[in-house]
User: Fold this.
Amino acid sequence: MTAAAREYVGPMRDLQREFDSLGPWFTRFEVDGAVYGGVNSYEGDGRLALFWQWLGQPATILELSSFEGGHSVQLAAPSFVERLVGLEGRKESIAKSLLIESILGRGNVEFIEADLDRDPLTPFGRFDAVFCAGLLYHLTQPWRLLEEIAKVTDRLFLDTHYAATVETTVDGYEGKYFGEGGYSDPLSGLSPTSFWMTLPELESTLGKHGLVVTERHNHADWGGHGPRVVLAAVRQ
Assistant:
């Protein structure tokens, strides 16, 4: 927590009350040794280290599905990051992210409501890098978002589940359907179903839009939920 943030919190601010007013939370945060929020902490998440390692020092970052701000404040923390825009589909999560930014941030983050299954990305401008973790497999048309990403950046960090087998083909893309909890479930997509692309289909789609996979860590099974890949794709 920065000195500026600590000064902003101040001795008169009741953080527990503020967190409680927006609960329940999934993400856990620590402020001056006190723990607030939920049970899952993103502090020291290895995906962030890979993001910097693979994509360098981007001055502007677009975060897709910023959720409760757990990744956001860490992505925006380095001095070379001038601007981070977090797009999120749930108003409740944006309210939580704004609280976290007011406590732990340094004033270079903007959170905007967007349906990433349908809304274009070009209105938000161009970015040095896009951070997309834990989102793509919650969408009904993941190939559409990949196309949108390629319009706004030359560098993508992507973390997603994918289909190990082909059960159906949708709009020419091979993969399988999965059930989602909808808007009321903050850990699900906004729609009742999602479509998981196969890994070859995913990489082929990125290549079709000019983004070539340069780094990849493949996980045969991630937490019992099936195969998952973490990759970097760069325009070459």
Remarks:
- The first strand starts at residue 28 and ends at 31.
- DSSP finds seven helices and twelve strands in the chain.
- Residues 220 and 226 are 7 Å apart (CA to CA).
- The radius of gyration is 18 Å.
